[in-house]
Design a protein that fits this description.
It comes from Halogeometricum rufum. The chain crosses the membrane at residues 20-38, 101-121, 133-152. InterPro entries: DoxX, DoxX-like_oxidoreductase. This is Thiosulfate dehydrogenase [quinone] large subunit. It is found in: Cell membrane. The chain has 174 residues and is mostly helical. The chain has one domain (20-171). It is built from eight helices and no strands. It has helices spanning 20-48, 54-60, 70-77, 79-99, 103-121, 131-144, 153-157, 161-165. It is globular and about 55 Å long. The two termini are 32 Å apart.
């Protein structure tokens, strides 16, 4: 490919997903993100078990945020679900990502978590772009690029008879 001096934007840019370097990078991204969520969930489970009371308490105090009464209602009415769901969800999402199993499904739920965390931040003391938004972008990237196929169990699961018989299951893998 030659450089066009008249129009430097004329050059084609290629992002080859079949490159070994890309495969290593996507696998590393998946495992590190998985560890981040797994560690957060396991730490909560060790410290609080299935009674992660900080989540509902935090929501109950969000009276003056852009979200209005929604988080307060959630904190008051969905407390048990939040107490158990946050540590279990983080742990399972992280585990799925680390081993590369059901990565698209795990990434979807990770994106849901990160959206709730990002919106729940609501004060946006550092602006709209913060760590929660970056986590949301990581999960979106793993969903789109099907990172479980790179050195993950999803590559093996795609070869099973069940997935071959029901090809739509591939959308959960990757």
């Amino acid at each position: 490919m030659s450089y066009n001096a008249a129009n430097p934007l004329d050059n084609a840019f290629e992002f080859d997903l079949d490159s070994p370097l890309t495969a290593y990078w996507l696998a590393l991204l998946r495992v590190v993100t998985g560890w981040w969520f797994f560690h957060a969930g396991v730490t909560k489970l060790i410290e609080d078990g299935l009674a992660f009371t900080y989540g509902p308490a935090y929501l109950q105090q969000m009276t003056g945020t852009a979200l209005g009464p929604i988080p307060v209602w959630m904190g008051n009415n969905l407390g048990p679900l939040i107490q158990a769901g946050v540590p279990l969800g983080e742990t399972l999402i992280g585990l799925g990502l680390m081993v590369g199993a059901l990565v698209r499904l795990a990434s979807f739920f990770g994106a849901v978590f990160m959206t709730l965390f990002w919106v729940g931040n609501a004060g946006f003391g550092h602006g709209l772009v913060n760590g929660d938004l970056m986590g949301l972008l990581l999960f979106g990237t793993m969903m789109v690029l099907a990172t479980g196929r790179y050195f993950g169990l999803d590559a093996i699961l795609e070869q099973t008879t069940l997935v071959k018989r029901h090809p739509k299951l591939r959308y959960l893998l990757g």
